[in-house]
Amino acid sequence: MDREGWNRRYLEQELLWSAEPNRFLVEEAGTRRSLVETGQEAVCEIDCLVRARFPR
Length: 56
Description:
Helices cover about 70% and strands about 0% of the residues.
């Protein structure tokens, strides 16, 4: 697609993507707090795995 094609595509609609969160994500995650907690748990698990593999 050329430059003009992209310009036309993005001028046709105000937003190509919704400003709302994905409904499936909302159903699965529940709240923002649970997303943060899940992310923190994942980081802790990765940290433990890395430390086990590469001890100081």
